[in-house]
Protein 1
Amino acid sequence: MMQDEPQLSRSSVATRKEAWSKAELLDLVTRSAGATMAVIDRHLVMIYVNEEYARWFEMSPAQLVGKTLVDVYGEQDCARFMPFVERVLRGERVQYQRMLRTPYGFDEWRAICLTPWHNSQGAIDGFITTALDVHELQVTMNALRAANQRLSSHMENSPLAVLEMDHKLQLLHCSQRAVQLMGWLHVAGLEGRLLTDLLDPAAMDDNSLQQALQRLQLGEESQNRAETSFVRSDGTEVHCEWFNSALTDGEGQVTSIMALVQDVSAKMQIARQQHYLANHDSLTGLLNRAAFQGRLEKSLVQARHSKGSVALLFIDLDGFKRVNDAEGHRAGDEVLRIVAQRIASTVRAGDTMARLGGDEFLVMLDQEVTRDVTDTIGHRIIEALHLPMTVDGRDLRIGASIGVAMHPPMEGDIDALMNRADQAMYSAKRAGKGRLHYAQTA
């Protein structure tokens, strides 16, 4: 401080603060927070919105004030969040997450906070709504902390885990949600410990998080994302998305790093289920045609490189239509499930099975493929499918005819190989069914 600069006493600073108008304070908070903010009355009419809020609707604040939530969002969208509005109007402070389309045309998750608005008599006149995306929460956290002393409560109540570290990645703050998510026993004793020590490298699927944090430490990035997958000590597999940001001083040196961690295990589970459904037959659980052809293509490429062999067994059930027509589709579906189980019990661990649809099945052999192996597995399948199948207390009988095509000597083309196996299967049926027939090379 310069010698001739006037020094302000505490009383003079307090006098200055008292001189600030409420409008000036509101403008300071709403402009610097980086959040969308609005005040809604009990009739769901907007009586105040900040510029950030209006920008999402490509309007000015003046154009939104006086409109209802239904006017702005529509009845269908309002129905989704009205349960939260009803809770806040009963006096409850509500936080939740919602996927929204940004003004830039992409979707993102936003953390939304609804706070009751009490009048001087304590009655609820409406509520205040604020919304932040994860990036904004990181960048503006310090500003929000200064503007709202209840920020620590927000952090603890957030569904995101909060981790604050110094430039060495030593923990400065850890929310209870982080303790739960990471599977740590308790918050006590975590402060001052290195995050890299707390996250067991042996339990992590890769080191992408460590690399992301290192880039922040070196000043190469100011914020980044990372995904981790690890197994907690209780055996639970956890998938997390990390949103990391670095705070620098006036000289550009990193002073602290903050990570907001979201548990995306449920999303990963859904993604896995969708991937499974996209590649498997819903009735039998075997691979579908597209997935099988992908496996077959890889095996043929490998066979060409290693001079190996691939055998394709095309299986068509004998007498299935009769059973399906006489017993009904429910019984027919159960027969198909039993067929899949019996085929699985006859092949080897590394062999590949699929259902093409209807009563057609495929088996690919690409390990230790010989004529003896193919004969053995093919006849095992025929024998297994010839045995009675008990469905709803009744013994049903079907059979199977199998056509086999092998590469080499046949060309290693998917369509050609499948067509030759299909033709060989029809030859087996014409020869009397319930038998194995090989495609001829000529």
Protein 2
Amino acid sequence: MEKVKMSLPSVEELRQLEVFQKYGLKMNVTDFSLLTGGQAYQLKEKVALGSEADPQILKERTSSYWTRTVTEEGNVSYINHLGYDNISSPKERYHLIRPMLYPTEELLQHLTVKRVNAQGVIEVPYGFYPQDALDYYENMQLERAYNNNQTKETGNCYTIDEKSYLFSPFGTHLIKLKEYQYLENCYIRLKTPTFSDGRFFNLSNGQGYCPERIQWLKVSPVVWLMDEPTGILVSKRGLLSGIAFHLTENTSYETSMMAQFIESHLSKEILHGTRIEHTSPVIPQNDVFDKLTILEKRIRALDPAAIHFKEEVAILGDYVASIRGQLETEGITPQNGFQKVKVVQK
């Protein structure tokens, strides 16, 4: 396959592409982007409708993200959490990376799983990346499996910059996080950082961030918004933070450390890694029922001879019971709003 070019969107593209005219410029966040130094914001009017830990409110949080547009003065344009462009020092680390793909004709032939969102924009899954944190029970299960050597390294890694924890304007210290497979899914294991500004935030699972704690995140398909006239794809959510732009004296994106990081690390880790049982992903709409199915499979896959068998069955059984109880209380069934997405073949 011809090499796919990954970049950042320019301010001109953000203003001109049809996909942004339909969808808008605001961008949601992933837990991984927050744990690597990003900041999340929520609309004030939403707070009155529920607590900050309300899952729906947490999913609607937005953040700022880099563009590749560099000013004559050596600053970099970014889009803030409200969707307006602004200017930032290239040394800042809290803006998120929202990658853009300029696809080849061969790549477009592989984008066969599609859906149309509420804004009339086509969404397609392509590539994989760590995104959402597991909840308390799942996190406990993964950590126990890891300690019992029940997880398997896949050979894939994801690169972050530890300097983001300290918000250092100088230098880089790139580290790689290993990917592990457990049953049918892949995950990363991250020791949550201690940020130098003492920040606090909630993860999308509703739990508050705590420093120096083991947090597992699921590696899942990256969802891209497609610009139909051009075929250009832009990530729906910001995937990573903590990477400074670091311009050289040439003051151009192409010679920046940001461009080098995207080409040498991010693009390869999203698009070119060897995957285990990661085939033809669909974008589920009935996540709750999918979670139940996965949990029940995990229970059936447990080894009765294992030392912690009864404890694991009890933990997972209580979790399944709590989810089913909530669904029953709210009267939710697979037939009344949690239907699978209809796959549209190109």
